[in-house]
Amino acid sequence: MKIAFISDIHGNAVALEAVLEDIRKKNIEKICVLGDICYRGPEPKKALELVRSLQADVIKGNADEWVVRGVKQGEVPETALEMMNKERDWIFSKLESTDIEYLSQLPTELKLVEQGIDIYAFHATPASLFEVIPQNAEDILLQDKVLSKQDSAIYLYAHIHKPYIRYLNGKVIMNIGSVGLPFDGVAKASYGLISIHETGFSTSIERVDFDTEKVMKQYIESNYPNTEMMIQVLKKASI
For the domain with range 2-236, which CATH number is right: 1.20.140.10, 3.60.21.10, 3.30.9.10, 2.40.30.20? Predict the structure, then answer.
């Protein structure tokens, strides 16, 4: 049994299509989506339609919440608030009421049991869509914020756009990175893969090339409100 965990697509349908093709080639049976589907990309509607066509398990991310109700004061730096809401309004204008309803009703956690392996997934932390748990977090923080709510073998999250795998107290903690906006300096889409077999399981981070030049052109041609910044993020794979 192979399960792909994807997240942080951010309206980058080009990257999402590349990842879905990689998943198909690897004969992966199940896909789970850990949020942030539309916001900050040039093709929000197409990205959402692709996700909805998968019949996957999908949970909500902070950016999905922002698309539904806007970015609130205190959730981002004050200097970025106005522009981020301009971006949100642009994304909102590209979606239909049924899309907004879909995003608003997404659950915030995912619990799976596959061949006796317990898997627990969420976007940022089990208690928050917004909290940041970095890849170099101290063990005590991971224990408190990631491991404390649910007893599972594997814990997965996204949000930070920097993939990693760590082991703590006999548990696997995996951040699956970002499909559409990687921040780790590697300009390739990222997703997590769990392979379950008769004697156990393995975990890995998969990286996939996508046409960044095409996405940059899409930002320009669509008159996206924060084009220059987003092009630089794509080029550097960093913020």
Answer: 3.60.21.10
Q: What's the predicted TM-score (pTM) here?
A: 0.96
pLDDT in tens, the chain (239 residues): 999 999 999 999 999 999 999 999 999 999 999 999 999 999 999 999 999 999 899 999 999 999 999 999 999 999 999 999 999 999 999 999 999 999 999 999 999 999 999 999 999 999 999 999 999 999 999 999 999 888 999 999 999 999 999 999 999 999 999 999 999 999 999 999 999 998 899 999 999 999 999 999 999 999 999 999 999 999 999 98
Task: Describe the strand order of the beta sheet including 200-208 as a list of residue ranges.
Answer: 57-58, 30-33, 2-6, 189-197, 200-208
Q: What are phi and psi of 155, to 5 degrees?
A: -120, 130
